[in-house]
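Example 3.2
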Amino acid sequence: MLPNYSPKLLWRHRYISQIAIVIFSLIITILLIDLFYFYILDRKIAGYKPGRFFQYDLLTGHSHRPNSEGYWYPYNDGTKFYVRINSFGFADSERKIIPTKPRIALIGDSTTEFWEADEPYRGQYVIESLLNDRFEVINLGVRDYGTDQTYILFQNIGIHFSPGIVIYTFCINDINDNVNSKSKPFF
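Structure, written as tokens:
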């Protein structure tokens, strides 16, 4: 024999079930829109997965992860830039250690790295073009480096590329990067 439920109790049960279905449908809809926005429209939050471009470094605290590539999302408006790190760990084309023509090295932090510009408009390519490709310009810039880290990087790695000219791009925030000791093994 079935229990005797009052019509008021049955109505309440149906009402709660309908609310649960609406809430569940709303959650699924939001999830699908978010996935579409993230994967199909390729819109990510600012700084999306910056770790894929960086690794811990015993000399400088951090460096670029060699052979990594992908989109860098620096701003909240969804602006993105394609970044490619070469096998030496620099945001530049693949380079050889032995120069084939006179070489200029660009050193510094994000102002040297030029990730916020499309690849053909990054410093090394613009300077090469302005010099009619008579010089090879290599980019040794790494985001968040202070002058101490830039010096260590150039002395230990950059010097092996035998640049005849070195251009150091200094930004005022490098002073703060010098005194910031987060994961910096030296200075």
